[in-house]
Structures are given as C-alpha cells and as structure tokens.
Amino acid sequence: MSGRRFAHLARLLNLPADPAASLAGDIWYRSDTKQLRGSDAGAGTSLTLGPTGNVPVVRAAQWHTLPPTGPVGSATVPADRLFALPFYPGRQCTITAMAVNVTLALVGGNIRMGLYASDGELPTTLVADYGTVTVGVTGVRSITGLSTAVRPVLHFLGVVRQGGVLNLGLSARDTWDAYVSDSSPVLDANRNSYYRDTASGALPASFGAVAGTVQGPSASVQLT
Length: 224
What we know:
Blueprint: E1 13-15, E2 27-30, E3 35-38, E4 47-49, E5 62-66, E6 72-76, E7 82-87, E8 93-104, E9 110-118, E10 123-134, E11 139-150, E12 155-162, E13 169-173, E14 193-196, E15 212-214, E16 219-223
C-alpha cells in the first residue's frame, strides 16, 4: 500500500476499579477517577501515569489549600481584582465547598468565589460562580453546598473582593507557583496567581486578558 499511511488506536481496558491481579507493564483506564493507571507488579496502590498537578492526592471530604506549598503569609486584596489561582487535581473530583481565611476584616466587603476552566495555560471560561460571603469578621469564610465536577486538568479558582472602602487581608502563601509564568525573569516577588481588574459584579463569563501576575490570596477547596 505504497503512499498510504494508517493510524492505529491502542484502546485500554476501561475499568471502574483497579484489576484484582495485574502484571508488570499492564496499563488500564480508570473510568471513575479519569486516570491512566499502570502496574509494576508491586503490592498496593497502582501507578498513576502522567502529570498529577498541584493537588496530586484527593482526600475525600477534606480541605485542599492553594497554593499548596510555602510559608503562610497575608495578602492585601484591592477591590474588584479577580485573582486566578491554579487548581490542577490529580484525579477526577467534585468541589463541595470553597473558603478563604480573613486576617484583616473589612466591614461592608464581600468575597466572591468561583471556578474557571483553562486552555492548558491560562484561565478561560467560567465554570461556576459560587456567589459571595461577607468578610466583615476575621477567620475562615466559606461557601458550602457546592457540587462541581472537575476533570484532572488545569483549572483556576477565582477569588475577588467586592465592596468596602478600607483594606482587606486574606491568608496567603509566600511562594511561587509552578503553574504561573511571568513576563520577566526578575525574581523580585512571589508570583502565585494571575489577575485581572474591574470584576465588580457576577464573575465574567470569560476571564479575558490577564493583566499580570502577583502574590494572591490563598483559597481552600473541599473535595470529594
């Protein structure tokens, strides 16, 4: 068949759980977690193939903080600045709650939270707007009762302060996030979030053009 090329698909076993017995080199697809899994013939957990993101292990019904590493600090949050924090779960999961920690309360202020999809690099379209919670008192402020299914690919958590005229402080991590890139090689500040300004109402349907990178506040998601 000179001059013709053929493409071939190698379709893996589609399983809702790891097989009871597998040999070294076996590979299968876990339909429940949306993962490629493999065996090295060792006892215990099977191997996860491919990138596992910044939340490599999803512990059901527990909280996962983003950024996931770095010493705890505090970020001053200007009004209407929408932060996009990278969220890349290592397996399929469901967001059931989202929270921030208020270190400096702001009377009359709220935090709006939500989730954006990505193009593999930057935040793109809105997946869910979770609404607002008051930041008039210090401590953890959460939005619960959520049910957003998330694939094991890069997403971005949206956090924006709305209202209030003084300063608002939220817990942060003093670190650089590997999923955030900058336009400059100068290491003069932590960069763990993309941002855009002028997000004063409901979260925009498209994140739009990124204004820059900055050390943003931390956010936590409860996953199952």
